[in-house]
Fold this sequence. Notes:
Keywords: Cell membrane, Membrane, Transmembrane, Transmembrane helix
Radius of gyration: 33 Å
Protein name: Mechanosensitive ion channel family protein
Subcellular location: Cell membrane
Organism: Clostridium pasteurianum DSM 525 = ATCC 6013
CATH architecture of the largest domain: Orthogonal Bundle
Helix content: 40-55%
Distance between the termini: 115 Å
CATH class of the largest domain: Mainly Alpha
Largest sheet: 5 strands, antiparallel
Transmembrane segments: 29-50, 86-103
Strand content: 15-25%
Amino acid sequence: MFENLNPFAIFKIDLDSGGIKIGNININLYKIMIIALKIFIIILVMYAAVKIGNSIIDKLVKKHIDSKFFVDSKRSKTAGELLKSLLRYGVYFIGIIGILNLTDLFGNISITFASIGGVAIGLGAQSIIKDVINGFFIIFENQFSVGDYIDIDSKSGTVESIELRVTKIRDFNGDLHIIPNGLITKVTNHSRGAITINIDICIDYSQKTDKVIDVLNKACDKFSETSKDIVEKPKVFGIIGFLPNGMNIRVSGKVKTSTQAQNGNKLRKFIKDELDESNIVITSNVKEIIIREEKNE
């Protein structure tokens, strides 16, 4: 045995037993290596279990969506994301318990860390329980599903996943917002039922109103023949206002959820092309201000 020259003799190394003694604490280096290997194996098994489990869940969800008894793909995807979340937390919990069971190597140190961990878990448990309970209510009440476009407070985007603790939504800029379920108090769901598209066109006062309405309805008919997303065929709603440069005429219709942007753009193109063919003038909603400069002779 080799001992350092410390007069208090608090640090000792025993090469025969492969141990280190610091004060009254004995640490076995060989045992540490064995436990480290076991921890590595546990982490590897956890990783494999999550990967394999997620793959199985994805296959089950796809099989359900493709089945002839399938009703709602969004509900199936939401259930799949929840199952993945349950699997992940379950595997992590079992893995952490297994790792903690190996920490008797350090004796009193492990008890101390366990006590500190217990206090930390107790302090964080309130928010975690709140998140989980609120997450179950979100799913049980079907407030929103994966793929829905929603507003949560000041955040807007498409729901990517609903998990036990958090909901993930991605906005049009590609930013991913991760929101704890316990903080979700007000939700606006834009993906339930048919979505109304309104298109306002400002027409010059010199144009005949009846002719303009006929041309716009003709554009709506052509658009309806090309779109499969129509719930209620678009048509001229009427004149909704008189502006300095022209009259505002609204075209209104309903389409399937999450398709309003592309269908709105497509309908605008049909309207513009039809108006051009009929030589109907579209004016600007912006009031023109003409300033004349008087020259003094």
